Amino acid sequence: MKSGDIWLVDLTDGKGHEQRGIRSAIIFGSANGIVMVVPLTSNVNTARLSHTHAISPDEHNGLDTESIALVFQMVSLDRERFHHRIGTIGEDHRLAIAALIRDLMGLD
């Protein structure tokens, strides 16, 4: 598992506005057996929300539909929640999402 990889993860216990179900997510870091991910959604209407980033399917990322990275939904997960690797995002997407994470956390 490395930063920029897309994995299928289990978020079945989400509550309220949290993402739920088995879905793809982008890895953005890990420590002590916990992995930080940004969930993806195929609901392109969410692109209107702040701290989101659109990713089109390509031969490297393994996505089969236009997806929106929900940076504002970033979450830490145990490795047991990870099913399998789907692909990886390009460096341009990784840098754009990292900038959104910094902005969301007030680190800029």
Description:
This protein has 108 residues and is mostly beta strands. It has one domain (5-104): SH3 type barrels (Roll). It contains 1 helix and 7 strands. Strands 1, 2, 3, 4, 5, 6 and 7 form a 7-stranded antiparallel β-sheet that branches. The N and C termini lie far apart (27 Å). The model has no long low-confidence stretch (mean pLDDT 92).
Task: Write the SSE topology.
Elements: E1 5-11, E2 21-31, E3 34-41, E4 52-55, E5 67-70, E6 75-78, E7 82-88, H1 91-104
Antiparallel strand pairs: 1-2, 1-7, 2-3, 3-5, 3-6, 4-5
Brief summary of the model shown:
The chain has one helix and seven strands, in the order E-E-E-E-E-E-E-H.
Q: Which keywords apply here?
A:
mainly beta; SH3 type barrels; seven-stranded antiparallel β-sheet; 42% strand
Remind me, CATH topology? SH3 type barrels
SS element count, helices: 1
Main sheet: strands, sense, barrel: 7 strands, antiparallel
Proportion in β-strands: 35-45%
Question: What is the CA-atom radius of gyration, in angstroms?
Answer: 13 Å
CATH class: Mainly Beta
**Could you give the count of β-strands?**
7
Anisotropy-based shape: globular
Spatial gap, N to C terminus? 27 Å
Average pLDDT rating: 92
Which architecture per CATH?
Answer: Roll
Helix content: 10-25%
What structural class do helix, strand and pairing data support?
Answer: mainly beta
Order of helices and strands: EEEEEEEH
Query: Which runs of at least 5 residues are low in confidence (pLDDT < 50)?
Result: none
What is the total domain count? 1
